[in-house]
DNA sequence: ATTTGCATGTAAAATGTTACATGATTGC
DNA sequence: GCAATCATGTAACATTTTACATGCAAAT
């Protein structure tokens, strides 16, 4: 939140849009989190709330980062970062894949692969557009580095999908006993 | 849970150990979840609880999967899988990386890279050991496929780290204004 | 003696998502 | 008039983690 406010003052609604437009790739925030956090940051003096009635629609509250907030932000940027803990349902299903036939497992991998492919196409578009739209933006290289992460990750995972489908095909079909009676 | 019980009947404690020994790579479960879930599965008739006092230590409850449970398991294995939603704190920090100096950002990437390297070494050991220890296990190929995922992912991310550090070094150092006074 | 490993469970806290309530303005 | 967009906030719910309470037995 402080990060986005360090670009320019904005409302909770604006932040939500920014999140969706920029870091959706690896981070999501819902209104259910944004508004309470904004309130807390205000209480801690890290941001300053200003009522803004000018624009269309309903009254909006615009938040600006304070010096104290800027300090907190750069402090956080230097703090140790824990690697993300993921829970990968597809891998869980693959792990127990011998309980069902190859077609079922294959379908799962294929669906995942298609999703990755869509991501990759999407990131490619964003990449080109960013470079075209704001070539002089000093933040741009940082944005692109996070995008490259998504691209490399998806590309590697597509390769894995292909390898996995191949491996699967070289394997004998498990005897049908999992769904029928005693294992 | 049903997946592990489909290998053989075991206790909640056993399941925890199995999770840590096999799918720790991409899935974690705490006792705080395991025991309540086991209770619920029992109520739904998907597992059968048996008191087992034989072994050393405290009394243990052993759970066995039922036919109904086996059905539920293979049904789940065929269900549509949603891609994992990650929240990658490192990327968030990198995205706002221009707020601090290169050394700080670089330190973050480097730390992540070291973590990835450790993972990769670890997975390599497990890979060799699995092949050595249970070469005739029919489940083995499935286990290895999930391991390969972790290996490919980490390898790709290490490449990204190197690329990112290089990119970072080609960038001009941001002027020190983030920490001092007005942005 | 004391640590370690086996073993089960609950409670509290933190985190996150979804749904709901409200309401003004703009464009069709 | 009606839908979409802008806009804020709360409440309910689901999920997950961490801490706590308990306690036996074997090894050090």
As a percent range, the share of strand residues of chain A is 5-15%
* Mean pLDDT score of chain A: 93
Detail the poorly predicted runs of chain A.
Answer: 178-183
Please identify the oligomeric state. Answer: homodimer
The outline of chain A comes out as: elongated
According to DSSP, the number of beta strands of chain A is 2
The profile of the biggest β sheet of chain A is: 2 strands, antiparallel
Largest interface between protein chains, with number of residues from each side: A-B, 72 and 72 residues
Order of helices and strands of chain A: HHHEEHHHH
The radius of gyration over CA of chain A amounts to: 23 Å
> Helix fraction of chain A?
55-70%
Number of helices in the DSSP assignment of chain A = 7
Terminal CA distance of chain A: 52 Å
Spatial strand order of the main sheet of chain A: 1-2
Helix and strand content put the structural class of chain A at mainly alpha
Quick recap of the structure?
Helices cover about 60% and strands about 5% of the residues of chain A.
Describe the structure.
The structure is a homodimer of 183-residue chains. By secondary structure, the first copy, chain A, is mainly α. The first copy, chain A, has helices at 2-7, 12-22, 31-43, 67-78, 89-95, 102-133, 140-169; strands at 47-52, 60-65. Chain A is built from seven helices and two strands. In chain A, strand 1 and strand 2 (60-65) form a beta hairpin. Chain A is elongated. Mean pLDDT of chain A is 93; it is low at 178-183. At the A-B interface, helix 4, helix 5, helix 6 and helix 7 of A face helix 4, helix 5, helix 6 and helix 7 of B. Chain A binds a DNA duplex (28 and 28 nucleotides) through residues 11-13, 28-33, 35-36, 39, 55-61.
């Amino acid at each position: 939140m402080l990060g986005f406010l360090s670009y320019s003052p904005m409302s909770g609604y604006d932040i939500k849009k920014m999140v969706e437009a920029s870091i959706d790739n690896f981070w999501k925030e819902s209104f259910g989190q944004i508004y309470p956090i904004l309130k807390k940051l205000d209480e801690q003096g890290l941001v300053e709330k200003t009522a803004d009635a000018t624009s269309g629609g309903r009254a909006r509250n615009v938040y600006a980062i304070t010096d104290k907030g800027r300090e907190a932000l750069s402090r956080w940027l230097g703090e140790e970062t824990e690697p993300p803990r993921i829970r990968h349902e597809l891998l869980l299903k693959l792990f127990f894949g011998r309980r069902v036939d190859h077609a079922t497992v294959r379908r799962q991998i294929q669906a995942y692969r298609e999703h990755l492919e869509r991501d990759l196409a999407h990131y490619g578009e964003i990449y080109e557009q960013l470079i075209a739209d704001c070539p002089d933006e000093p933040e741009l290289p940082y944005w692109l580095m996070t995008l490259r992460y998504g691209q490399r990750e998806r590309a590697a995972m597509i390769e894995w999908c292909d390898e996995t489908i191949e491996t699967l095909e070289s394997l004998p079909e498990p005897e049908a006993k999992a769904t029928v009676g005693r294992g």
